[in-house]
UniProtKB/TrEMBL annotation, chains A, B:
Domain HTH tetR-type per the UniProt entry, residue ranges: 25-85
Name of the protein in question: TetR family transcriptional regulator
DNA-binding region(s) in UniProt: 48-67
UniProt keyword terms in alphabetical order: DNA-binding, Repressor, Transcription, Transcription regulation
Organism field: Bradyrhizobium jicamae
Region (Disordered): 1-20, 211-254
Amino acid sequence: MDARSPSSSRQSPWLPFESRRRARDEKREAVLRTAVQLFLEQGYHRTTLNDVADRLNITKPALYNYFGGKDEILFECWAIGNERVDDCINEIAAGGGTGLAKLRKLIVSYAEVMTTDYGKSLVRFDVRDLTEHNRRVVNTAKRKIDRAFRDYIAEGIADGTIKPCDPKLSAFAIAGSLNWIGHWFQPGGPMTAEAIAEEFAIRLTAGIATTSTRKKADKPPGKIKTSREDRDEHHARTAPRAAGQSKRTRDRLR
Amino acid sequence: MDARSPSSSRQSPWLPFESRRRARDEKREAVLRTAVQLFLEQGYHRTTLNDVADRLNITKPALYNYFGGKDEILFECWAIGNERVDDCINEIAAGGGTGLAKLRKLIVSYAEVMTTDYGKSLVRFDVRDLTEHNRRVVNTAKRKIDRAFRDYIAEGIADGTIKPCDPKLSAFAIAGSLNWIGHWFQPGGPMTAEAIAEEFAIRLTAGIATTSTRKKADKPPGKIKTSREDRDEHHARTAPRAAGQSKRTRDRLR
DNA sequence: ACTATTTATTACCTATGGGTAATATATGTG
DNA sequence: CACATATATTACCCATAGGTAATAAATAGT
């Protein structure tokens, strides 16, 4: 759709040196999309802002129209991934179900997020590259996720769907398996993200569930999420910024 | 033992600027011990060679008497951790037992290594910081570890101690949980490394073992390792170098 | 004690890359 | 069309940190 310019290279809204329109947010997102790819490919420290700019057909200083610095770009990438996980947690919390059912939903959602670029950000990026402030934001968010796992396990133990166990340790074990997905998963492999997510939901709870195994009381007719329409990329978010905005240049604009 | 010098600061063989003797290898190891600590504390890229040297009461160029460069230090740290895991794998391979028993032994050993500094190196350091050559060495070693997990699972399925499942995916799930230990474990917590290792060995196999749960046919009287005498630090290794030796200065010496 | 070798130190060099200033080019508005 | 605004570009700056050269201080051997 939208066959406009003579140049054919997709992916960058800045066509080699011609028509440049499109909204600001769309460009912001293009920067993040490119940045997260490069950060994952080469690692944050080995990726220069010139690398990012080059791949977008612009120059380094242009990036500063959208971000205050390299670390802020890193933070925003992380923020998108976190937002996705956070949405899942909130949806699960809103819906009902047993502790085990909620835990499985969380595993499925979290596993799927882990197979996306922004999801990988959550486990492949180093918090210590962020500013003091953003680091705190990240740590708070991580605690929330950890809390969700532990709470659902505790709920499951309380309602009898999960065998008595140490919620903390079990949460670590489960989260570890899921986080690891962010390190090995590559689209195009033998299994789809959804298949892996489903499989993990069963496997990771097989040891602690009271109801022996395989599909049971989870998935009540009105399914909660699972489908996920906006596959990867794009995410709207025009207003909900305001979180990052670290140090440096930020006053001279606006 | 060995109350010699007036200065009391332990940890560094280079006492503030006085008696300097001791063998070369002991100093080499002191460098690695300090480096791995700093790399874990601050991250590889945020740690400068001056940081390492300072903590040892020496200056940066002195490090080059023992290592060819920063990345070589990183590699050696990794190598020590890998050596420990490799020893475990070889011992397990030498001993007998069912597939499940071997898998559990591997989980226990691997988990324990993951709680040490050098063990953490295996999962916290980025392979891309190494030279092409060393990167290949690391990748080969990682494949061997992955192989061990998969093979024992496959053996277990064959001998009936493990339920039919996809060895690859199960290995990823288990390894993920274990690798995650390297990210959250801190000595001094409520659980000891050994307790965590034992717990994980049970938990991570509970879902796939055929023999319902809890201790069973594992641990045949003649126990294999588990005790581990040389707790942390030190590791002898005087000869078995020769692996690293990347690019740069290496000719001018010797 | 004299010499050779090892192992430090001081003083540099230099590439890299994040960030900035000054300026140009679109874009859109009255 | 002129003017304001947003958004690029070119040309810099400069701190950092890995690495090296020249040299001094230990240590060992004879």
